[in-house]
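Per your request, structure below.
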């Protein structure tokens, strides 16, 4: 009986230690988001690309981004076209859909009016390599 109690306590301790050693999903989202928005704010295309996963979905009637060259060509469209990602990302907080623990998104308004409707959606997924930018779309199109 003592052995069983000791084994149980050791197992409970191990689970507790391992569980607390791993960051929560929200902590990992927050850390990634801080890094990603800093890269966008600095217009560091290489850093943003390194935090992305190809192919990047581009929403309705847009082709996917499949190569680094395509990403660099579309960078301004994604982050500085109809949307001002630098301005939007500063106060933005990552949002998650219920039940989707391996995905988060950030929404932004049009750069021109800057308020109200937020049709631009940046989606991020947890991959084997960590969090990655995987999709950009204008939900109005």
């Amino acid at each position: 009986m003592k052995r069983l109690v000791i084994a149980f306590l050791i197992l409970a301790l191990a689970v507790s230690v391992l569980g607390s050693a791993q960051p929560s999903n929200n902590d990992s989202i927050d850390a990634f988001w801080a890094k990603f928005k800093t890269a966008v704010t600095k217009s560091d295309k290489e850093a943003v690309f390194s935090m992305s996963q190809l192919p990047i979905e581009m929403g309705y009637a847009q082709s996917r981004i499949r190569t680094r060259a395509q990403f660099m060509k579309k960078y301004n469209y994604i982050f500085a076209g109809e949307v001002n990602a630098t301005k939007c990302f500063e106060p933005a907080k990552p949002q998650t859909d219920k039940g989707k623990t391996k995905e988060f998104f950030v929404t932004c308004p049009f750069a021109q009016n800057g308020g109200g409707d937020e049709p631009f959606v940046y989606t991020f997924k947890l991959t084997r390599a960590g969090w990655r930018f995987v999709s950009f779309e204008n939900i109005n199109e």
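Residues 2-21 form the longest helix (20 residues).

Regards,
D.
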